[in-house]
Design brief:
145 residues, single chain, globular, two-stranded antiparallel sheet, Arc Repressor Mutant, subunit A, mainly alpha
């Protein structure tokens, strides 16, 4: 075990591993693409992939402030990754969807993450990964659903 992980509790250990994996995937993407996409932008893109949610829905379902969410959506739009449209019969609300370029980027990034997962599987084993996924998916009795 790496020394920086040795004395961490479960919450901090999960957080540190998450940050490390996000950092690695961001570097993998940005090292192979002309379009810079931040982790927060990927987080938003994941919420809209194959959907057309409202911007207010996105704001409520990501752990990012409303103002920052709007800024990230504006950035994604300027990169040609999303389009923002009016909601029928509602002048206030806007919905958002990935453009074909946005979908291509999202799918390419999914392939990069799959290659990283494969490396992790090679290091710690198929059964361990399957077990870890089951644990992470299970009801811990502490989550507000």
């Amino acid at each position: 075990m790496k020394p920086q992980f040795e004395n961490l509790d479960l919450i901090d250990l999960l957080g540190e591993r998450h940050l490390l994996l996000r950092e690695i995937t961001e570097k993998m993407w940005n090292g192979n693409s002309d379009i810079y996409i931040s982790n927060s932008e990927w987080f938003i893109m994941a919420r809209i992939y194959k959907k057309q949610p409202t911007i207010s829905y996105i704001s409520k379902n990501v752990d990012i402030s409303r103002q920052a969410t709007h800024k990230f959506i504006k950035n994604l739009h300027s990169k040609g990754l999303v389009e923002v449209m009016n909601v029928e019969n509602n002048n206030k609300e806007k919905c958002i969807r990935l453009t074909s370029l946005g979908e291509q980027c999202f799918e390419k990034n999914a392939a990069l993450k799959a290659s990283l997962e494969k490396k992790i599987i090679e290091k710690i084993g198929d059964q361990q990964i399957a077990f870890l996924k089951e644990i992470l998916k299970s009801d811990w009795g502490v989550l507000n659903d």
